[in-house]
Specification:
single chain, 383 residues, 3-stranded antiparallel β-sheet, 15 helices, 11 strands, globular
Length: 383
Amino acid sequence: MSRARIERIKAAFARDQRDDPPAVHPGDIPWRYEAITPEWMTHILCRGHAEARVVAITLDAPDSGTSNRRRIFITYNEAGRALGLPRSVFCKATVDLVNRILLSTSALLSETSFYNLIRPQLAIEAPEALIAAYDPDSFASIIMLKDLGERVTFCSHHTVMTLERAKDQMALLATLHGHFYRSPQLDAGLAHLFRYDHRFAALDRDHDFRTMCETGLRAAADIVPPRLMAREAAVWPATLRASARHGELPLTITHGDVHLKNWYITADDRMGLSDWQVTSKGHWSRDVAYTIATALTVEQRRLWERDLLAYYLDAFTAAGGEKIAFDQAWHNYRQQMLTTLAWWTMTLTPLGDVPDMQPRDITLEFIRRIATAMDDLDTLDSL
């Protein structure tokens, strides 16, 4: 990202702080949650119901990571209550300057594209947006989702995974990947989306991805298998080669950040996938490797990974993808453990304008799982 672009974002943020504009009209994008008015919420939530009005809103406690998240509780007039309109929504926004700068590189474009263009095409368990928009000058943004509330349970590294849950994850990914595999949309309506290897290169160019990854790997040395740590110098060059494979292999739409915390479990024990801000054009193998490595304990992965990959490949073919030989798929799966590890060594030791995105305990656990998978699979020798 150019210095001039960063300065433009800073200037727009300073202007928003100074003027504190309220969000009132349909095209407005609230620069902070406190700028949201009942009038603006009426445009979003009461569309098609002229008699209904939002009369008050209440903000839940803030929660920040790569984006600034908040639940909003809604009070309607009598007509709105009678219609049974949503009583709460879940929002993601770029309220803080650091989030605007970080997500301006591609994440806002990617996530709004998912909710506006990709999600409507898919029969998967994933959130649905009421509005997904951002300002391309200031990078103020708002993604307002139907509130899953107490109807689902979000996962963590403590979640007990079963083989059936893991298969459900594979089925969801196969539906996404198969639908868009080699699709003409990739060069038409979705041509604006980043390719994963280009996104990776932009992270390194704009945020010194390499230093964060190398520093993070050294900081996690106590939980990285000694055989892998002994080849520390080979990890980054191999990661670059693994990322470059996305420009050489057939493309589809990928989620890009499928760690276990972004999955949830519904009341009927189905797996759902949230947080689509790294949606990219890429090869399916990274999503599959990333999901298996972070969702399962080391022991579960060792027992199930071959069967899960085979299950995925069958579902992928059924969803519109081509028939892929298992040995070829296994090779790609092994390679993409490298790009998976990079996402979490960076998270352990963020630098500069990259915010602290995850608690240390879950970051270390995911690094341990991924690094152990790399050691088990001889990933460094797969390239």
